[in-house]
Amino acid sequence: MAARSFARRVGLEDWREVSVMALRKQLALSFSSDVTQCANAVQSLLYSESLSWMTDSGFSQDESDPIDLAADFSKLLIWEFYPGFLALDEVTSVMPLIKIIELHQQHADRTYLLFRSCLNKLHRFLLAAS
User: Fold this and answer.
1) Distances from the Cα of 38 to the Cαs of 6, 58, 88, in angstroms?
2) Could you tell me if residue 12 is inside a domain?
């Protein structure tokens, strides 16, 4: 859903049919190495925030767990930032740290809402599966 939302927001005509893998390949080809580094930095921030939000929500992340839920959340949440990365790529190829922080702050509220939505869907799924 996150990938399709991104595809719809950037105006892809076939956003309902496009696969996540195809979108990722397309993004990898369109991002400069600087923008890729920016995306990696933001994803690291999202990982840290996911760990914190999970703790606040009653989830604990143990290093011995085979599933890294915070990493999965950060991979979902990064789709919210891709339109901004595309815009940055068009403007400049240099991403100072301040740009990364500004981009992250612009999306902070929505990112938290998306996290809560994903967590609620996971919770409903787990309740239905048990």
Assistant:
1) 18, 30, 10
2) no
Q: Which residue has the tokens 């399709």?
A: 4
Domain range for 80: 32-129
Residue 91 included in any domain: yes
pTM of the model: 0.81
Is the Cβ–Cβ distance between 34 and 95 less than 8 Å? yes
Those residues with Cβ within 8 angstroms of residue 48's Cβ, 6 or more apart along the chain or in another chain: none
pLDDT digits (tens, 9 = 90+) for 16-41: 888 889 888 988 888 887 788 888 88
Evaluate whether residue 27 is within a structural domain. Answer: no
Residue 96 included in any domain: yes
Neighbouring residues of 91: CB distance < 8 A, sequence distance ≥ 6? none
For 45-94, the pLDDT digits (tens) are 999 999 999 888 887 777 777 888 999 999 999 999 998 888 775 555 45
Number of structural domains the chain divides into? 1
